[in-house]
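Lecture notes, unit on protein representations.

Consider one protein chain, 141 amino acids long.
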Amino acid sequence: MKTLLIFLLSFSALTVFSQNKQDLPVPLPGNFMDDYGIKYQISDTLFFMLSATKYHVLRWNTKEQYIIAHNGLDNPHDKGLYTRIDYMKFENMEPYKWGFCLTTWDAKTDSLAEFTALKVDRANPRKGCSGFPFSRLKRID
């Protein structure tokens, strides 16, 4: 029964995934910097926190605004596990156009990363990442 439930959840989730680049918060690929001075190289297949943390994108859910990724095997933490990265567009926060929140970073499978993530509050980006702000990103290229 548990296996059937996981299969059904995975199957139903497949219908909302999109690789349509027009649905992403900004044109990719791109180089970005967050409000903490951390630099990123992001494409539709890689979310790279320079200089050591790579998240290999497995799929984008553009409808619900999150990414499911496999953590790099050389990452300093949570090697080879799975991460969910929730994101949102910003209005009137120039030069920051969008931001992200790691809502799961150490799941054993991609399905667990997707369905056991912390909840986010996009209506309150300053505290909507489990009481913390979304990391805001600005383009630097």
